[in-house]
Amino acid sequence: MPNFVRLIICFLLLCGTVALFVFHLWGWGILGILLTVLVLITFFFNENMLIAQYYLRKENMEKAAFWMAKITNYEKQLIRVQHGYYHLLLGLLESRKTPLKAEKYFKRALSLGIHMDHNVALAKLSLAGIAMAKRNKREANMYLQEAKRADKKKLMADQIKMMKDQMGMLDRTQMRYR
Predict the structure, then answer these.
(1) pTM score, two decimals?
(2) CA–CA distance from 171 to each of 23, 125, 174, 178 (Å)?
(3) Which end of the chain is more exposed for a tag (fewer CB within 10 A), N or C?
């Protein structure tokens, strides 16, 4: 459902709620307020993305992909702030199947803008893993440093440390084959 339709429904519910309060139907008016708030929340947080995030946390990729597929035109169905998160979720889904093809989604997510620092760190850490898979140590190191800077609350400190250790092992294997 496009966002302008959600706003129209929210406005109509708000008008109906005000009318219920004017006619002294307080119980139905409170229910109307709750419905109006629910519709307004779906304007800012798309329900398909919320459900897809839930299934990603549960590691049920098929259902997460199903709910992400319900977003057919993200530019119309999501507000501009959510465009980066949409591409981040697509990148996470794609990285489970084909990690090297997920790079375009992570780069697009960063270019569109992700506002939470831990999500920026996640995207940069994923890009570092992709660069390591391509044997591009310089780019991987750059993304790891950026991920470390973005991870202000140290939520991904273990993953960053593990990635640095793997990069050290990558150096040893390259030296062995030369």
Answers:
(1) 0.82
(2) 75, 19, 5, 11
(3) C
In angstroms, the Cα distances linking 73 to 77, 86, 87, 140 are 6, 11, 12, 32
Per the structure block, which two tokens stand in for 128? Answer: 């570092």
Rounded to 5 degrees, φ, ψ at 70 are -70, -15
The string of pLDDT tens digits covering residues 30-67 is 999 999 999 988 888 888 999 999 999 999 999 999 99
